[in-house]
Amino acid sequence: MNDAHPAPRKAKPPSYLDAIIPLLVLIGLVGASVALFGLNAVDGPLQVGIILSTMVAVVIILKNGHVWEEIAESGRKGIATVVGAIFILLAVGALIGTWNMSGTIPTLVYYGIKLITPGWFYPITFLVCACTSLSIGSSWTTAGTVGVGLIGLAHMTGLSPAITAGAIISGAYVGDKVSPLSESTVLAAQLAGVDLYVHIRSQMWTTIPAGLVALVAFAVFGLRRGGSFDSAMTNAELARLDSLFHISIWNLVPLVFLLGLSIRRVPAALAIMSSALLAGAMAAFMQPQAIARFIGEPDTAAPIVAIKGIWLAMANGFKANSGIPQVDELLSRGGMDSMLLTIWLIIGAVTFGILVDDFGMLGKLVTPVLLRAKTMGRLFFTVVATAIGLNIVAGDQYIALLLPSRLFKSEFARRGLAPENLSRSVGDAGIVTSPLVPWNSCGAYMAAVLGVSTLAYMPFALFNIAAPICTLLLGLTGFKIRRIPIE
Question: Which residues cross the membrane (predicted)?
């Protein structure tokens, strides 16, 4: 009787077919989710598609002789890489809720709108949206709130909705690219293994030139077209903001506090949560009427109302009821729970990415490409082309961030290139080009909320076009390319 256990089956490397199938399934399911559910795809269907694609990858990995314990360990390793990002996202949700309640965001919007004049409409639109997105970290919210009002003004004055939409999207993606409150910025840094503020400083070398190019171009458009408009709509929004909140420069203290902590390199999650708590405490003194309307308990003692307001704003976000849709949509947001869909999406995308990377599928596909990228300029071009290509074929910004970061991380280290070079390139190509693709979730969203087709505003999304060009120029010239010792 032979009691010997059979020798474990040796795992074999993936074939080209093994490597391509999960990506084709991912592209098909992501495309189907966007086609079937449109803007609502990010509310769950897109995440389901990514999880199913991950299951397909798991089946192939098991077929090649690997055991479940290896797959589980790889998944745990992937989730561990984004734990920091998850805490930051939850802190951002809390901050947005308390910044709305404290009047910080309303004050920024109030002063921003007051700057608008007809001759300088396009460049001011770009600057207002850039400032708004930097303060709240969301391109979608900026476009869907301030952007909607600005598009309305363009229609009333006979100014170009396409140029206006391009200016809105350009400004909105400044914050999406470099704001510490942006989940895209946080994810790009985390995936490349870079400190958040190191990543942001690195991004400035492409963000500032691209922003200046866009600003000058929009100024030229504005001076050539001019125009005048009836400011009744703008005045109504300003008056409503002024009646709902005590508008004061002091409301910007939480923003200044956050910037100060960031300069002192306080960990991002701690800095953001500290600013959220400060804004909540200030709201109790600066905006008691806003908290009272939010809680709706007139018989409850004021200190209890303030505590409940801060707690709920951090958990579920602040809710406004001004009667003006643009104002309500801008202010009724935030809360940790608002980040849960994004966290779900990130967990699914990271798990898919690390599995196809750890078990050789990405390497099988990317090795022939890397062999042809002999020079640093070609390497940067390959990163940018891969990120833009994934925005086109996969239709999702997070996949365009995740997969290139996983694909090229080891190659950058092998060539002695600091990881912030990779995070900057992926951010410039993966984040800002997503709204330029009509079937991408970002492009579909922008076209829907602004009422301008993607192909119409695409030539005028100047910041989004200039940013990847800037990162290619850095790669070609070697300017501001930090190097590290080769291990």
Answer: 20-42, 48-66, 78-99, 119-136, 148-174, 204-223, 244-263, 269-288, 300-318, 338-356, 377-400, 456-479
